[in-house]
Write a structure and sequence with these properties.
It is a single chain. The chain is α+β, with helices and mostly antiparallel strands. The chain has one domain (36-222): 3-Layer(aba) Sandwich (Glutaredoxin), CATH 3.40.30. 46% of the residues lie in helices and 12% in strands. The chain has eight helices and six strands; from the N terminus they run αβββαβαααααββα. It has helices spanning 3-19, 65-83, 104-116, 124-136, 147-156, 161-169, 176-190, 216-222, and strands spanning 36-38, 45-47, 54-60, 87-93, 199-202, 207-208. It has a six-stranded mixed sheet. The longest helix has 19 residues, at 65-83. The chain is globular and about 40 Å long.
């Protein structure tokens, strides 16, 4: 048998074996996709690369209709800028519209933290899509989304199945009372005269953004 034929046969054998090789271990997030995690203080959800040139905080209430408008108008752009590495967004939920402890807003806020709780295989862009889905199906003053609905929203947003399942199963991912107190304290420091939602804060410049300027996001990305 010629040397060339032997080399060809070995090459074919390696190719065949390589396609069926099994890799053990737990799947981790792709380093090329925008990460998702919890802020250092434990009360914010951070979507995007840490070295993104633009960084904002979004203070939002799950039953706030103006927060739903923000997602409807700018959610797609936020997801795009997160995905391409130009923007890091920290969501800081609030629950002041709840009538009772553990109500609608508390349940939705907890679901957001479940999505980002370690270990998570979801990306920052997928989380942004999840936020859009949740606020897009908002029922202010009504019943909170069911476990099946939250799972559907997560799946529609493109989140991995294990994350969508974790969201639907529930369980406490954050101390809601402490989250609400901490995030409202930050919000009050930003604007004590109008500590409402939605509020978008530019972390680089240390200033509140005028989100009622239809071009506010494009302007942010150009600075």
């Amino acid at each position: 048998m010629s040397r060339l034929l032997v080399v060809l046969l070995i090459g074919l054998l390696v190719a065949a074996v390589g396609c069926t090789r099994q890799v053990t271990g737990t799947a981790g997030p792709d380093p090329k996709t925008p990460p998702l995690g919890i802020s250092q203080d434990g009360y914010g959800i951070v979507a995007g690369f840490a070295d993104a040139p633009a960084k904002i905080e979004i203070y939002t209430e799950p039953q706030c209709n103006h927060c739903a408008d923000l997602q409807a108008d700018f959610g797609d752009q936020l997801a795009y800028y997160i995905a391409v590495g130009q923007l890091e967004v920290t969501y800081r939920p609030l629950t002041f519209m709840d009538d009772t402890h553990g109500g609608y807003s508390s349940q939705v806020s907890n679901a957001l933290f479940l999505a980002a709780d370690k270990p998570t295989t979801a990306t920052g862009a997928q989380f942004q899509r999840f936020v859009e889905e949740v606020w897009g199906h908002q029922r202010p003053g009504g019943t909170a989304p069911t476990a099946d609905e939250l799972k559907e929203y997560a799946t529609t947003a493109g989140m991995p199945g294990d994350v969508a399942q974790r969201i639907s199963e529930g369980g406490s991912a954050v101390n809601i009372k402490e989250m609400d107190s901490t995030n409202f304290g930050y919000l009050y420091e930003i604007d004590s005269m109008n500590a409402g939602t939605p509020t978008v804060y530019d972390l680089n410049k240390g200033e509140k953004l005028d989100i009622y300027d239809n071009d506010w996001l494009n302007k942010l990305m150009q600075t």
